[in-house]
Amino acid sequence: MTDSRPRLGGLLTREPSVVAAGVGVLAEALERQAVPVAAVDWRPPPEGTEGALAAVLGRPGWAEANERAVGRMLGARPHLVDVRPAGEVLGLDAGTFLHAGPPLEWERASGPMRGALVGAMLLEGLADSPEKAERALEKGTVVLEPCHHHGAVGPMAGVVSPSMWMLVVEDAEHGGTAYCSLNEGLGKVLRYGAYGPEVIDRLRWMGGVLGPVLRAAVRGHGPVDLLAIMAQALQMGDELHNRNRAATSLLLRELAADLAEADAPRARVAEVLRFAGGNDHFFLNPAMAAAKAAADAARGVPGSSMVVAMARNGTDFGIQVSGTGDRWFTGPAGVPDGLYLGGYGPADANPDIGDSAITETAGVGGFALAAAPAIVRFVGGEVPDALAATQRMYEITLAEHPALQIPLLSFRGTPAGIDATRVVRTGILPVIDTGIAGREAGTGQVGAGLVSPPAGVFRDALHALAEIAADPGAAAAKGT
After folding, report:
1. Which of 12, 54, 234, 295 sits most deeply, having the most CB atoms within 10 A of its CB?
2. Do residues 31 and 86 both lie within one domain?
3. pLDDT 10s digits, 123-138
4. Are residues 233 and 328 in the same domain?
Protein backbone atom coordinates (compact mmCIF):
# COMPACT_ATOMS: atom_id res chain seq x y z
CA MET A 1 0.00 0.00 0.00
CA THR A 2 1.05 3.58 -0.63
CA ASP A 3 1.87 5.54 2.50
CA SER A 4 -0.62 8.42 2.51
CA ARG A 5 0.67 10.04 5.68
CA PRO A 6 1.74 13.68 5.25
CA ARG A 7 5.46 14.15 4.83
CA LEU A 8 6.94 17.20 6.55
CA GLY A 9 10.56 16.73 5.55
CA GLY A 10 10.23 18.86 2.43
CA LEU A 11 8.82 21.77 4.40
CA LEU A 12 11.87 21.75 6.67
CA THR A 13 14.50 21.45 3.96
CA ARG A 14 13.32 23.70 1.10
CA GLU A 15 12.81 27.46 0.94
CA PRO A 16 9.37 28.51 2.22
CA SER A 17 6.78 30.06 -0.07
CA VAL A 18 4.92 32.87 1.69
CA VAL A 19 1.67 34.53 0.65
CA ALA A 20 0.73 37.66 2.63
CA ALA A 21 -2.77 39.11 2.63
CA GLY A 22 -4.14 42.16 4.35
CA VAL A 23 -1.86 44.22 6.60
CA GLY A 24 1.59 44.69 5.05
CA VAL A 25 3.64 44.51 8.28
CA LEU A 26 4.30 40.76 7.99
CA ALA A 27 5.28 40.98 4.33
CA GLU A 28 7.65 43.88 5.01
CA ALA A 29 9.32 42.02 7.88
CA LEU A 30 9.89 38.94 5.76
CA GLU A 31 11.21 40.96 2.82
CA ARG A 32 13.81 42.55 5.13
CA GLN A 33 14.99 38.99 5.83
CA ALA A 34 15.27 38.23 2.10
CA VAL A 35 12.26 35.88 2.18
CA PRO A 36 10.29 35.92 -1.10
CA VAL A 37 6.71 37.08 -0.45
CA ALA A 38 3.71 37.09 -2.78
CA ALA A 39 1.50 39.96 -1.58
CA VAL A 40 -2.25 39.70 -2.17
CA ASP A 41 -4.27 42.91 -2.24
CA TRP A 42 -7.05 41.70 0.05
CA ARG A 43 -9.25 43.47 2.53
CA PRO A 44 -12.34 42.40 4.47
CA PRO A 45 -15.75 43.40 3.09
CA PRO A 46 -16.95 46.82 4.28
CA GLU A 47 -18.68 46.79 7.63
CA GLY A 48 -22.39 46.19 7.33
CA THR A 49 -22.21 44.17 4.10
CA GLU A 50 -21.52 40.72 5.58
CA GLY A 51 -25.19 39.77 5.90
CA ALA A 52 -26.07 41.04 2.44
CA LEU A 53 -23.15 39.17 0.89
CA ALA A 54 -24.19 35.97 2.65
CA ALA A 55 -27.78 36.37 1.45
CA VAL A 56 -26.80 36.98 -2.18
CA LEU A 57 -23.99 34.45 -2.42
CA GLY A 58 -26.08 31.85 -0.62
CA ARG A 59 -29.11 32.27 -2.83
CA PRO A 60 -29.80 29.06 -4.79
CA GLY A 61 -29.00 29.58 -8.46
CA TRP A 62 -26.95 32.77 -7.97
CA ALA A 63 -23.90 31.42 -9.80
CA GLU A 64 -26.07 30.03 -12.59
CA ALA A 65 -27.84 33.39 -12.95
CA ASN A 66 -24.52 35.18 -13.37
CA GLU A 67 -23.34 32.57 -15.83
CA ARG A 68 -26.47 33.11 -17.88
CA ALA A 69 -26.19 36.91 -17.77
CA VAL A 70 -22.53 37.06 -18.77
CA GLY A 71 -23.09 34.37 -21.38
CA ARG A 72 -25.78 36.48 -23.04
CA MET A 73 -23.53 39.53 -23.03
CA LEU A 74 -20.56 37.67 -24.49
CA GLY A 75 -22.77 36.00 -27.07
CA ALA A 76 -24.13 39.27 -28.47
CA ARG A 77 -23.36 40.02 -32.12
CA PRO A 78 -23.86 43.78 -32.65
CA HIS A 79 -24.19 44.99 -36.23
CA LEU A 80 -24.58 48.53 -37.53
CA VAL A 81 -27.69 48.35 -39.70
CA ASP A 82 -28.87 51.93 -40.26
CA VAL A 83 -28.46 55.65 -39.53
CA ARG A 84 -31.66 57.62 -38.91
CA PRO A 85 -32.94 60.77 -37.14
CA ALA A 86 -33.72 60.41 -33.44
CA GLY A 87 -37.26 61.65 -34.00
CA GLU A 88 -37.90 58.61 -36.21
CA VAL A 89 -36.18 55.80 -34.31
CA LEU A 90 -36.73 56.96 -30.73
CA GLY A 91 -40.07 58.68 -31.18
CA LEU A 92 -38.81 61.96 -29.71
CA ASP A 93 -41.01 64.99 -30.17
CA ALA A 94 -39.91 68.61 -30.04
CA GLY A 95 -40.46 68.74 -26.28
CA THR A 96 -38.24 65.80 -25.26
CA PHE A 97 -34.45 65.66 -24.94
CA LEU A 98 -32.37 62.69 -23.82
CA HIS A 99 -29.25 62.98 -21.67
CA ALA A 100 -26.45 60.79 -20.33
CA GLY A 101 -26.49 59.08 -16.97
CA PRO A 102 -29.25 58.42 -14.45
CA PRO A 103 -32.34 60.68 -14.21
CA LEU A 104 -31.61 64.38 -13.73
CA GLU A 105 -33.51 67.65 -13.38
CA TRP A 106 -32.33 71.01 -14.70
CA GLU A 107 -31.87 72.34 -11.15
CA ARG A 108 -29.17 69.71 -10.45
CA ALA A 109 -27.55 69.74 -13.88
CA SER A 110 -23.84 70.56 -14.14
CA GLY A 111 -22.34 73.23 -16.37
CA PRO A 112 -21.55 71.01 -19.37
CA MET A 113 -24.97 69.34 -19.18
CA ARG A 114 -26.67 72.74 -19.12
CA GLY A 115 -24.51 73.94 -22.00
CA ALA A 116 -25.42 70.90 -24.12
CA LEU A 117 -29.12 71.36 -23.39
CA VAL A 118 -28.90 75.03 -24.35
CA GLY A 119 -27.21 74.01 -27.60
CA ALA A 120 -29.94 71.48 -28.35
CA MET A 121 -32.57 74.19 -27.81
CA LEU A 122 -30.79 76.40 -30.33
CA LEU A 123 -30.38 73.53 -32.80
CA GLU A 124 -34.08 72.65 -32.66
CA GLY A 125 -35.18 76.27 -33.03
CA LEU A 126 -36.85 76.29 -29.61
CA ALA A 127 -34.91 79.43 -28.67
CA ASP A 128 -33.00 82.07 -30.64
CA SER A 129 -30.43 82.91 -27.97
CA PRO A 130 -28.63 81.06 -25.17
CA GLU A 131 -30.32 83.29 -22.59
CA LYS A 132 -33.81 82.45 -23.87
CA ALA A 133 -32.92 78.77 -24.07
CA GLU A 134 -31.77 78.74 -20.45
CA ARG A 135 -34.92 80.52 -19.26
CA ALA A 136 -37.10 78.03 -21.10
CA LEU A 137 -35.20 75.10 -19.61
CA GLU A 138 -35.56 76.61 -16.13
CA LYS A 139 -39.34 76.71 -16.66
CA GLY A 140 -39.40 73.03 -17.54
CA THR A 141 -40.61 73.45 -21.13
CA VAL A 142 -38.57 70.41 -22.19
CA VAL A 143 -38.88 66.87 -20.80
CA LEU A 144 -35.51 65.39 -19.83
CA GLU A 145 -35.07 61.61 -19.90
CA PRO A 146 -31.98 59.34 -19.70
CA CYS A 147 -30.71 57.87 -22.96
CA HIS A 148 -30.63 54.45 -21.26
CA HIS A 149 -34.43 54.56 -20.82
CA HIS A 150 -34.75 54.56 -24.61
CA GLY A 151 -32.20 51.88 -25.45
CA ALA A 152 -29.67 54.58 -26.31
CA VAL A 153 -26.35 55.92 -25.07
CA GLY A 154 -24.66 59.27 -25.54
CA PRO A 155 -21.05 60.33 -24.89
CA MET A 156 -20.30 63.02 -22.26
CA ALA A 157 -23.50 65.12 -21.79
CA GLY A 158 -25.16 62.67 -24.18
CA VAL A 159 -27.87 65.14 -25.16
CA VAL A 160 -30.06 63.89 -27.99
CA SER A 161 -32.75 66.02 -29.63
CA PRO A 162 -35.20 64.96 -32.37
CA SER A 163 -33.22 66.23 -35.39
CA MET A 164 -29.95 64.53 -34.42
CA TRP A 165 -29.04 61.41 -36.37
CA MET A 166 -28.52 58.10 -34.60
CA LEU A 167 -26.56 54.95 -35.32
CA VAL A 168 -28.88 51.93 -35.24
CA VAL A 169 -27.19 48.76 -33.95
CA GLU A 170 -28.93 45.39 -33.82
CA ASP A 171 -27.86 42.31 -31.89
CA ALA A 172 -28.04 39.51 -34.45
CA GLU A 173 -27.95 36.89 -31.69
CA HIS A 174 -30.62 38.11 -29.27
CA GLY A 175 -32.57 40.58 -31.39
CA GLY A 176 -32.10 43.74 -29.31
CA THR A 177 -31.48 47.20 -30.73
CA ALA A 178 -29.34 50.04 -29.38
CA TYR A 179 -28.74 53.60 -30.55
CA CYS A 180 -26.05 56.25 -30.30
CA SER A 181 -25.62 59.70 -31.80
CA LEU A 182 -22.90 60.58 -34.32
CA ASN A 183 -19.51 61.75 -33.06
CA GLU A 184 -18.78 65.47 -33.45
CA GLY A 185 -15.01 65.29 -33.04
CA LEU A 186 -12.95 66.95 -30.29
CA GLY A 187 -12.61 70.43 -28.85
CA LYS A 188 -15.61 72.75 -28.55
CA VAL A 189 -18.47 70.34 -29.19
CA LEU A 190 -21.98 69.97 -27.83
CA ARG A 191 -21.27 66.82 -25.83
CA TYR A 192 -18.70 68.74 -23.78
CA GLY A 193 -21.18 71.55 -23.15
CA ALA A 194 -20.16 74.03 -25.87
CA TYR A 195 -22.93 75.73 -27.85
CA GLY A 196 -21.30 78.52 -29.89
CA PRO A 197 -22.23 79.18 -33.55
CA GLU A 198 -19.53 76.79 -34.82
CA VAL A 199 -21.03 73.99 -32.71
CA ILE A 200 -24.55 74.54 -34.02
CA ASP A 201 -23.33 74.88 -37.62
CA ARG A 202 -21.47 71.57 -37.32
CA LEU A 203 -24.54 69.82 -35.91
CA ARG A 204 -26.69 71.15 -38.76
CA TRP A 205 -24.13 69.88 -41.26
CA MET A 206 -24.17 66.50 -39.54
CA GLY A 207 -27.96 66.39 -39.85
CA GLY A 208 -28.02 67.60 -43.46
CA VAL A 209 -24.97 65.83 -44.90
CA LEU A 210 -23.19 63.36 -42.61
CA GLY A 211 -26.27 61.46 -41.48
CA PRO A 212 -27.89 60.99 -44.91
CA VAL A 213 -24.60 60.00 -46.60
CA LEU A 214 -23.77 57.48 -43.87
CA ARG A 215 -27.30 56.09 -44.11
CA ALA A 216 -26.89 55.51 -47.83
CA ALA A 217 -23.54 53.81 -47.30
CA VAL A 218 -24.69 51.54 -44.46
CA ARG A 219 -27.84 50.52 -46.31
CA GLY A 220 -25.79 49.86 -49.44
CA HIS A 221 -23.29 47.78 -47.51
CA GLY A 222 -25.69 45.78 -45.36
CA PRO A 223 -25.11 44.98 -41.65
CA VAL A 224 -21.60 45.95 -40.50
CA ASP A 225 -20.11 43.51 -37.97
CA LEU A 226 -18.97 45.84 -35.20
CA LEU A 227 -17.62 43.09 -32.96
CA ALA A 228 -15.22 42.00 -35.70
CA ILE A 229 -13.94 45.57 -36.08
CA MET A 230 -13.58 45.94 -32.31
CA ALA A 231 -11.65 42.66 -32.01
CA GLN A 232 -9.22 43.70 -34.74
CA ALA A 233 -8.83 47.23 -33.35
CA LEU A 234 -7.79 45.88 -29.94
CA GLN A 235 -4.93 44.09 -31.66
CA MET A 236 -3.94 47.35 -33.38
CA GLY A 237 -3.59 49.43 -30.21
CA ASP A 238 -7.11 50.71 -29.45
CA GLU A 239 -9.01 50.19 -26.21
CA LEU A 240 -12.28 51.50 -27.73
CA HIS A 241 -13.09 54.32 -25.34
CA ASN A 242 -10.43 57.03 -25.45
CA ARG A 243 -8.47 55.50 -28.32
CA ASN A 244 -10.39 54.56 -31.48
CA ARG A 245 -7.88 55.41 -34.20
CA ALA A 246 -7.60 51.89 -35.62
CA ALA A 247 -11.33 51.16 -35.30
CA THR A 248 -12.23 54.38 -37.10
CA SER A 249 -9.90 53.47 -39.97
CA LEU A 250 -11.31 49.94 -40.15
CA LEU A 251 -14.89 51.22 -40.28
CA LEU A 252 -14.09 53.70 -43.03
CA ARG A 253 -12.31 50.98 -45.03
CA GLU A 254 -15.37 48.76 -44.63
CA LEU A 255 -17.70 51.49 -45.91
CA ALA A 256 -15.40 53.17 -48.45
CA ALA A 257 -16.81 51.52 -51.59
CA ASP A 258 -20.37 52.06 -50.40
CA LEU A 259 -19.66 55.72 -49.69
CA ALA A 260 -18.31 56.05 -53.22
CA GLU A 261 -21.48 54.47 -54.61
CA ALA A 262 -23.85 56.44 -52.38
CA ASP A 263 -26.57 58.44 -54.09
CA ALA A 264 -25.08 61.76 -53.02
CA PRO A 265 -23.08 64.54 -54.68
CA ARG A 266 -19.40 63.74 -54.95
CA ALA A 267 -18.48 66.83 -52.95
CA ARG A 268 -20.66 65.72 -50.04
CA VAL A 269 -19.12 62.26 -49.97
CA ALA A 270 -15.69 63.91 -49.88
CA GLU A 271 -16.83 66.10 -46.95
CA VAL A 272 -17.96 63.02 -45.03
CA LEU A 273 -14.69 61.19 -45.65
CA ARG A 274 -12.61 64.19 -44.59
CA PHE A 275 -14.67 64.68 -41.43
CA ALA A 276 -14.66 61.05 -40.34
CA GLY A 277 -11.05 60.49 -41.41
CA GLY A 278 -9.92 63.50 -39.40
CA ASN A 279 -11.79 62.41 -36.27
CA ASP A 280 -9.97 59.59 -34.47
CA HIS A 281 -12.93 59.24 -32.08
CA PHE A 282 -15.48 58.60 -34.82
CA PHE A 283 -15.79 54.92 -33.88
CA LEU A 284 -16.42 55.65 -30.18
CA ASN A 285 -20.13 56.01 -30.86
CA PRO A 286 -20.54 52.72 -32.77
CA ALA A 287 -18.52 51.04 -30.00
CA MET A 288 -20.87 52.49 -27.38
CA ALA A 289 -23.96 51.30 -29.22
CA ALA A 290 -22.39 47.84 -29.66
CA ALA A 291 -21.59 47.69 -25.93
CA LYS A 292 -25.12 48.85 -25.07
CA ALA A 293 -26.65 46.12 -27.24
CA ALA A 294 -24.43 43.50 -25.58
CA ALA A 295 -25.11 44.70 -22.03
CA ASP A 296 -28.85 44.96 -22.64
CA ALA A 297 -28.91 41.32 -23.70
CA ALA A 298 -27.95 40.47 -20.09
CA ARG A 299 -30.69 42.51 -18.43
CA GLY A 300 -33.44 41.04 -16.30
CA VAL A 301 -31.83 37.76 -15.23
CA PRO A 302 -33.36 37.01 -11.79
CA GLY A 303 -30.70 36.70 -9.10
CA SER A 304 -27.82 37.99 -11.23
CA SER A 305 -25.43 40.49 -9.61
CA MET A 306 -23.84 41.46 -12.94
CA VAL A 307 -23.69 45.17 -13.77
CA VAL A 308 -25.45 46.04 -17.04
CA ALA A 309 -24.96 49.82 -17.08
CA MET A 310 -22.57 52.41 -15.68
CA ALA A 311 -23.43 56.00 -16.54
CA ARG A 312 -22.75 59.54 -15.35
CA ASN A 313 -24.63 62.79 -15.86
CA GLY A 314 -22.03 65.21 -14.49
CA THR A 315 -23.68 65.21 -11.08
CA ASP A 316 -24.45 61.57 -10.26
CA PHE A 317 -22.79 58.28 -11.12
CA GLY A 318 -25.30 55.45 -11.53
CA ILE A 319 -25.25 51.72 -12.14
CA GLN A 320 -27.90 49.17 -13.04
CA VAL A 321 -27.70 45.46 -12.23
CA SER A 322 -29.21 42.57 -14.17
CA GLY A 323 -31.16 41.16 -11.22
CA THR A 324 -32.70 44.45 -10.07
CA GLY A 325 -34.47 45.54 -13.24
CA ASP A 326 -34.30 49.20 -14.31
CA ARG A 327 -33.52 50.53 -10.82
CA TRP A 328 -30.64 52.99 -10.57
CA PHE A 329 -28.10 52.99 -7.73
CA THR A 330 -26.47 56.41 -7.60
CA GLY A 331 -23.77 58.36 -5.81
CA PRO A 332 -21.73 61.52 -6.41
CA ALA A 333 -19.73 61.55 -9.63
CA GLY A 334 -16.00 62.06 -9.03
CA VAL A 335 -13.55 64.26 -10.92
CA PRO A 336 -11.23 62.24 -13.19
CA ASP A 337 -7.51 62.17 -12.46
CA GLY A 338 -5.58 62.84 -15.65
CA LEU A 339 -3.84 65.23 -18.02
CA TYR A 340 -5.15 68.69 -18.89
CA LEU A 341 -5.10 70.72 -22.08
CA GLY A 342 -3.45 74.12 -22.34
CA GLY A 343 -3.78 76.17 -19.18
CA TYR A 344 -6.59 74.08 -17.68
CA GLY A 345 -6.25 72.22 -14.38
CA PRO A 346 -8.31 70.24 -11.86
CA ALA A 347 -10.14 73.37 -10.71
CA ASP A 348 -11.60 73.71 -14.23
CA ALA A 349 -12.85 70.10 -14.39
CA ASN A 350 -16.45 69.01 -14.07
CA PRO A 351 -17.28 65.78 -12.24
CA ASP A 352 -17.41 62.70 -14.46
CA ILE A 353 -20.04 62.72 -17.20
CA GLY A 354 -21.27 60.46 -20.00
CA ASP A 355 -22.77 57.12 -21.00
CA SER A 356 -19.45 56.03 -22.51
CA ALA A 357 -18.71 53.87 -19.45
CA ILE A 358 -20.96 51.35 -21.20
CA THR A 359 -17.72 50.33 -22.95
CA GLU A 360 -16.18 49.29 -19.63
CA THR A 361 -19.44 47.60 -18.69
CA ALA A 362 -19.03 45.36 -21.74
CA GLY A 363 -15.32 44.67 -21.22
CA VAL A 364 -13.40 47.28 -23.23
CA GLY A 365 -12.32 50.86 -22.54
CA GLY A 366 -10.55 51.02 -19.20
CA PHE A 367 -10.83 47.25 -18.88
CA ALA A 368 -8.72 46.87 -22.04
CA LEU A 369 -6.02 49.42 -21.24
CA ALA A 370 -3.40 46.70 -21.62
CA ALA A 371 -4.29 46.55 -25.32
CA ALA A 372 -3.49 50.23 -25.79
CA PRO A 373 -0.21 51.16 -24.07
CA ALA A 374 -0.12 54.43 -26.03
CA ILE A 375 -3.23 55.54 -24.14
CA VAL A 376 -1.06 56.64 -21.21
CA ARG A 377 0.12 59.61 -23.30
CA PHE A 378 -3.51 60.80 -23.32
CA VAL A 379 -4.76 59.93 -19.81
CA GLY A 380 -1.53 59.90 -17.78
CA GLY A 381 0.53 57.26 -16.02
CA GLU A 382 3.02 54.76 -17.42
CA VAL A 383 2.65 51.63 -19.56
CA PRO A 384 2.89 49.28 -16.54
CA ASP A 385 -0.07 51.17 -15.04
CA ALA A 386 -2.18 50.29 -18.06
CA LEU A 387 -1.25 46.62 -17.79
CA ALA A 388 -1.92 46.57 -14.05
CA ALA A 389 -5.32 48.22 -14.49
CA THR A 390 -6.55 45.51 -16.84
CA GLN A 391 -5.14 42.72 -14.68
CA ARG A 392 -6.94 44.19 -11.64
CA MET A 393 -10.26 44.09 -13.49
CA TYR A 394 -10.09 40.28 -13.84
CA GLU A 395 -10.66 40.15 -10.07
CA ILE A 396 -14.10 41.77 -10.26
CA THR A 397 -15.44 40.25 -13.47
CA LEU A 398 -17.20 37.00 -14.29
CA ALA A 399 -15.53 36.01 -17.57
CA GLU A 400 -13.06 36.79 -20.32
CA HIS A 401 -14.42 37.91 -23.66
CA PRO A 402 -13.80 35.18 -26.25
CA ALA A 403 -13.61 37.59 -29.20
CA LEU A 404 -11.95 40.66 -27.65
CA GLN A 405 -8.36 39.66 -26.91
CA ILE A 406 -5.26 41.48 -25.66
CA PRO A 407 -1.96 40.68 -27.43
CA LEU A 408 0.26 41.85 -24.53
CA LEU A 409 -1.50 39.38 -22.22
CA SER A 410 -0.88 36.46 -24.58
CA PHE A 411 -4.25 37.06 -26.27
CA ARG A 412 -6.19 36.68 -23.06
CA GLY A 413 -9.80 37.84 -23.42
CA THR A 414 -10.68 41.21 -21.91
CA PRO A 415 -12.22 41.06 -18.40
CA ALA A 416 -15.98 41.25 -18.88
CA GLY A 417 -19.10 41.16 -16.74
CA ILE A 418 -18.64 43.27 -13.60
CA ASP A 419 -19.95 41.40 -10.56
CA ALA A 420 -21.27 43.79 -7.90
CA THR A 421 -20.56 41.25 -5.16
CA ARG A 422 -16.90 40.96 -6.19
CA VAL A 423 -16.54 44.73 -6.19
CA VAL A 424 -17.86 44.88 -2.63
CA ARG A 425 -15.85 41.87 -1.42
CA THR A 426 -12.51 43.03 -2.87
CA GLY A 427 -12.87 46.79 -2.63
CA ILE A 428 -11.58 47.01 -6.21
CA LEU A 429 -13.55 49.55 -8.24
CA PRO A 430 -13.98 49.49 -12.03
CA VAL A 431 -11.49 51.70 -13.88
CA ILE A 432 -12.88 54.03 -16.55
CA ASP A 433 -10.83 56.14 -18.95
CA THR A 434 -12.67 59.24 -20.00
CA GLY A 435 -12.58 62.76 -21.34
CA ILE A 436 -12.83 65.67 -18.90
CA ALA A 437 -15.37 68.41 -19.55
CA GLY A 438 -14.93 71.98 -18.37
CA ARG A 439 -16.99 72.91 -15.33
CA GLU A 440 -18.41 76.03 -16.96
CA ALA A 441 -21.03 75.72 -19.70
CA GLY A 442 -19.58 76.47 -23.12
CA THR A 443 -15.97 75.59 -22.23
CA GLY A 444 -15.69 72.22 -23.99
CA GLN A 445 -13.04 69.57 -23.27
CA VAL A 446 -10.27 70.42 -20.80
CA GLY A 447 -8.47 67.07 -20.52
CA ALA A 448 -8.68 63.28 -20.22
CA GLY A 449 -7.97 60.78 -17.46
CA LEU A 450 -9.11 57.89 -15.30
CA VAL A 451 -11.99 57.71 -12.84
CA SER A 452 -13.82 55.13 -10.73
CA PRO A 453 -17.43 54.91 -9.54
CA PRO A 454 -18.31 55.72 -5.93
CA ALA A 455 -18.09 52.51 -3.89
CA GLY A 456 -21.50 53.11 -2.33
CA VAL A 457 -23.41 52.34 -5.52
CA PHE A 458 -22.21 48.73 -5.44
CA ARG A 459 -23.07 48.36 -1.76
CA ASP A 460 -26.56 49.73 -2.43
CA ALA A 461 -27.01 47.27 -5.30
CA LEU A 462 -25.84 44.44 -3.05
CA HIS A 463 -28.39 45.30 -0.37
CA ALA A 464 -31.14 45.46 -2.99
CA LEU A 465 -30.14 42.02 -4.26
CA ALA A 466 -30.19 40.75 -0.67
CA GLU A 467 -33.74 42.07 -0.19
CA ILE A 468 -34.82 40.25 -3.33
CA ALA A 469 -33.14 37.05 -2.13
CA ALA A 470 -34.97 37.32 1.19
CA ASP A 471 -38.39 38.08 -0.29
CA PRO A 472 -38.64 37.63 -4.07
CA GLY A 473 -42.39 38.25 -4.02
CA ALA A 474 -42.08 41.66 -2.39
CA ALA A 475 -39.31 42.61 -4.78
CA ALA A 476 -41.44 41.63 -7.75
CA ALA A 477 -44.25 43.82 -6.45
CA LYS A 478 -41.84 46.79 -6.41
CA GLY A 479 -40.96 46.13 -10.04
CA THR A 480 -37.35 45.07 -9.46
Report:
1. 295
2. no
3. 999 999 999 999 999 9
4. no
